[in-house]
Amino acid sequence: MSRIRITVAGAGAMGLTAALALAEAGCEVAVFDPAPPLANASGVAAGMLAPAFEAALDPTRDQAFDLLLAGRDLWPGLEARLGLSLDRAGAIAVGAPQFLSTTDTALRRLGLYPNAIGRNTLAQLSPGLSPEWREGLLVREDWRLDPAQALSALRRAAADLGVSFHARAATGFEGADRLVVATGAATDLAVMAPSLSLLQPIKGQLVRINDPLARGAVVRTEGVYAAPSATGLVLGATMEPGRADLDIDPAAIETLRVRGAKLFPRLADAGDVQAQAGVRAASPDGLPLVGRGRHHGVLLAVGARRNGWLLAPLAARIIAACVTGRDAGPYAARLDPGRFAA
């Protein structure tokens, strides 16, 4: 019996995770993407797996907390499968009393129990944090991964299962039986996947600083987050709806640097600074389009807004179920691309 042949358009978090799941299900998979391996929004991202603060700090996401948490809970299996190391240090909120009070209320509304922590604990969990911050909130539900490490591990694991990679854009099925559109904000395949017209591009800019002292938990405050990484500290990120360019805006970058230095004063004199920009896509309700498209044989895994890494394993599970005829699980209906049809 011949294997189902799958073309996956896009080699970001969604595309690679889907490709791996489909290969593990016995499909013959080919991935098409003209961009270099790390030159996409997934590679530029900070790698947040943050269901708690994503839902608490964004009023449009609180009703999706269960779905976001379900996506995060699939990551330990991938962590073991890929040999990754997830950062489970958690995340801290600091800021004005009103900001902390509002954040605490929002987290508790989600059923979480944030820990109120004082100056000594803040200094232990985030060395170098400005002494201006005397209190904060800690949640352990939010994790982080290294995007470059994760993308490389996904490609290796997929290649080991026979997935082929092609450094060009897919223009259609490319001779396959199914087409999985995981092209982020690109709409080149909209003829085959009309739902792509629903997506809005969102530009995000961030700053990477070579900081050997960076370690500990992610720190969030109004207008910026600071995430320790393997190469230093990531300050991010802007949200610029409707923009699909990759131009660096010096004013936006300077704002991130100033806000970052307010968290960590040592950053004021940082010299090794790299600014990056990526373009993500968002659906009208902020949740991705995952599942069968309008045309036969076409599936979508796009529009995750800033939660591409968080929801990638969940999207991959749904895509594999659609192809193999298995149960797609309890979240498939909420992510169905057809949910916006009149």
Automatic annotation (TrEMBL):
<protein>
    <submittedName>
        <fullName>NAD(P)/FAD-dependent oxidoreductase</fullName>
        <ecNumber>1.-.-.-</ecNumber>
    </submittedName>
</protein>
<dbReference type="InterPro" id="IPR036188">
    <property type="entry name" value="FAD/NAD-bd_sf"/>
</dbReference>
<dbReference type="GO" id="GO:0016491">
    <property type="term" value="F:oxidoreductase activity"/>
</dbReference>
<keyword id="KW-0732">Signal</keyword>
<keyword id="KW-0560">Oxidoreductase</keyword>
<feature type="domain" description="FAD dependent oxidoreductase">
    <location>
        <begin position="6"/>
        <end position="321"/>
    </location>
</feature>
<dbReference type="Pfam" id="PF01266">
    <property type="entry name" value="DAO"/>
</dbReference>
<feature type="signal peptide">
    <location>
        <begin position="1"/>
        <end position="23"/>
    </location>
</feature>
<dbReference type="InterPro" id="IPR006076">
    <property type="entry name" value="FAD-dep_OxRdtase"/>
</dbReference>
